[in-house]
Specification:
Elements (H helix, E strand, L loop, with lengths): L5 E8 L5 E11 L6 E11 L10 E6 L7 E10 L6
């Protein structure tokens, strides 16, 4: 059985109907200078939740391809963003 890949990221956009753009940040040391470097990557994920907003912290897992660029699915909302008033 293949291991599914899991990532935790922040919702960047929910403008599409069933798709959310999730920003995942990784920290790794530079190969030569050994300084920690932040790298970000955007993933398009299947959105089945109705109440997602920009800034929410979510967990995504890899799935079979859903469309040309969408290979991920949101499985859990870890933290909702507080609304500004």
């Amino acid at each position: 059985m293949a291991k599914t890949n899991e990532k935790i990221g922040i919702i960047k956009s929910v403008k599409m109907q069933k798709t959310a753009v999730v920003l995942v940040e990784t920290v790794s040391p530079h190969p030569v200078y050994k300084k920690l470097v932040k790298k970000t990557k955007k993933f398009k994920a299947e959105n089945t939740f109705e109440d997602l907003k920009v800034g929410d912290l979510v967990k995504i897992i890899s799935t079979k391809p859903i469309s040309k660029e969408k290979n991920w699915k949101i499985v859990d909302v870890l933290k909702h963003v507080a609304e500004k008033k």
